[in-house]
Design goal:
Structural class: mainly alpha
CATH superfamily: Thiolase/Chalcone synthase
Distance between the termini: 49 Å
Number of domains: 1
Strand content: under 5%
Length: about 210
């Protein structure tokens, strides 16, 4: 007998997120080198943050484990480029590999939602944020890409609140692949995707690539 391990795949298509992202990368012309570059930046920034103690009060040690072992200080574009495609191994066009993806892993975080009276009871050094609005977006994964909902949600959310991209200090597009983040940047910058921006000039993502 074998241990049954369920597939990490979409129930409708039978494809994994990695396979779907390969399709998205091809659709939005996201190349391998571009993915590896943003991944290398992520490795370097994560290592630098660990080294300067940024995570010291954010991580709870478990046994002897006190540090994330996934970011690699010794990686390089050359090493990343040598890794074979992980999801499209037959077409010769696969670009998503282990180095520009995150592994299957688990973590936990928490967020306290409180009133002003409740916040007044907390220490003054607690990080505080104000929730202004949210957007729930559904997409047709057959035509718009399984992981592309933020590209549709972001412009509507900003427009509803009279904000621009420059008004937001930190962006997080939560997904496991460099290709998905880059596809979102391409979609948000694309004048051809008229349904994502009204008017087109207002929704330019602007200096993200230069400052990333």
């Amino acid at each position: 007998m074998k241990l049954y391990i369920p597939a990490v795949s979409n129930r409708t298509t039978g494809l994994s997120m990695g396979e779907h992202t390969e399709d998205t990368a091809k659709e939005w012309n996201v190349g391998r080198e571009e993915q590896d570059r943003i991944s290398l930046d992520s490795h370097r920034r994560a290592i630098a943050a660990w080294d300067r103690g940024f995570f010291d009060d954010l991580v709870i040690p478990i046994g002897d484990l006190r540090r994330d072992t996934i970011p690699r200080a010794d990686t390089s574009l050359e090493k990343l480029a040598k890794l074979p495609p992980s999801f499209d191994r037959t077409s010769g066009r696969g670009t998503i590999a282990a180095g520009n993806s995150s592994p299957l892993t688990d973590g936990a975080a928490s967020l306290w939602v409180a009133s002003r009276a409740g916040l007044a009871k907390l220490p003054t050094d607690v990080y505080k944020a104000k929730l202004i609005d949210w957007e729930i977006t559904s997409i047709d994964l057959r035509t718009e890409g399984l992981l592309m909902a933020p590209a549709f949600a972001i412009p509507r959310l900003l427009a509803r609140n009279g904000l621009t991209y420059a008004d937001i200090d930190i962006w997080e597009i939560h997904e496991a692949f460099a290709a998905q983040v880059l596809a979102h940047i391409n979609a948000l910058e694309s004048p051809a995707v008229s349904k994502l921006r009204k008017p087109a000039s207002k929704w330019r993502l602007g200096p993200f690539r230069e400052s990333a």
